Amino acid sequence: xxxxxxxxxxxxxxxxxxxVGAVLVVPAAVGAPADTNAATNAAAAAAAAxxxxxxxxxxxxxTEPVTAADEPALDVxxxxxxxxxxxxxxxxxxxxxxxxxxxxTYTISGHLTGPAxxxxxxxxxxxxxxxxxxxxxxWRVPVEGYHHSYEMAERGHVSLTIxxxxxxxxxxxxxxxxxxxxxxxxxxxxxxALRSGEYEWAGDTPAPSFTEVTTLxxxxxxxxxxxxxxxxxxxxxxxVSGWADGGLTDEATARFQAALGSCMSGGTPSEEPDDPxxxxxxxxxxxxxxxxxxxxxxPEVIEYSAGKQNKHPCGDMVSQLxxxxxxxxxLREIDVPVLFLYGELDAxxxxxxxxxxxxxxxxxxxxxxxxxxxxxxDLARQHEVALDGLTSxxxxxxx
Length: 399
Fold this sequence. Notes:
Radius of gyration: 19 Å
Mean pLDDT: 86
Strand order of the largest sheet: 5-1-2-4-3-6-7-10-11
Largest sheet: 9 strands, mixed
Strand content: 15-25%
Number of strands: 11
Structural class: alpha/beta
Helix content: 25-40%
Distance between the termini: 39 Å
Low-confidence stretches: 1-36, 48-60
């Protein structure tokens, strides 16, 4: 089974991919103010990446992926509930972005984490969409102070973190059989399940339902949450984290083109007999992964994260540029409060201030920048700037 416009839309997406350089480096919409710090920050980001390359402990980088058996343990804080959850979703695409999906049913896995007093019948929850090379692990790093979900729970907020379709604990079909549009549709299905309480969780009580749902997307997860809000209008707030439609740096564009070339030839060769086809690496090796994503980060955090690098579904990558075009036309339709989070020295994404101006229909927009941090600023030494900024925004909006 497939979406009705499958063939036509794949052709559109491939055409868009062919003009990647022209699309991704567009600095702003007509009339949008220039981001005067962008060039300075981009240069500083490149220097920061070189600093990471020079100072990160090369002998400590993981040479093999971190497996469940090797996963370090971090105790759940007192007064916090952290339960495994799963959602049954259909990999369909009814979003505003026309791109192909297989229409099959899959399981999305994750965790619901929050204060024990709120999970019995929660009012507000934030749903987290990770980026292209990470996974749910990004929000659950088992290093004291860096487990985002625990930190937010101790600040009074409930978080749903998931592995998107194609990643880690969730189902992993052929990576060519999904796209940014179907990822947005599946996020929409999860939002609705959270409102109704119709999902599976490991708690002793019925799964909690929520009246207010905020979505947060990091890296290209930011594009997914934008498209979900454009297409369905069913969220109360949105956080765009480390994503700007016209803000990819030269380094990010080069990596994107290389990964796109791999996808056009079928993806990175499978490492295990049961690995699905149609997946590719954005960064070729853990050293490149670290240099491109981290700045001012503790070695222990880098060591753990380097072993968690993921391949990404090629269908998501091929459809990403067509999604940028949808955003250019329709971002102004988003009419909920929006928070923007960025790392000051992000080697992958700049022009966050320009991107903020494109959401002209939002009743309020707020931007928080983490000093000295890279693309993975939630894992940087000053990550509490992001935690506190997010908490303050959620509290201020009444979520």
